[in-house]
Amino acid sequence: MERGSVFMTNKTQAVRFPKSVRLPDGTTSVDIQRRGRSWVITPSEQSWAAWFDGEGVSDDFMTDREQPADQERAAL
Q: What Gene3D superfamilies does the database record attribute to this sequence (predicted)?
């Protein structure tokens, strides 16, 4: 595990990352999610790409979903 440092700059809290875990070059903003006592920091421009490239859902996802039958509607 790498360890960074937290410091104040101009009344703003900032985090300094070690070189081995730096954010990609060109990153200008991040999305931050709080999970219990942890924070997950993701480059904003990569968050959706990572989601779509992820593992996806299991084969039994929503197999028990109660869905009404399709409705017959007049054409517009």
A: 2.10.260.10
CA 25 to CA 64: how far, in whole Å? 44
Give me the numbers of helices (H) and strands (E) for the chain, helices first please. 1, 4
Q: Are 27 and 43 in contact, with CB atoms under 8 Å apart?
A: yes
Strands 12-16 and 5-9 turn out to be antiparallel
Token pair, residue 2, equals: 């790498």
pTM of the full structure: 0.52
Predicted confidence band of residue 22 (pLDDT cuts 50, 70, 90): very high
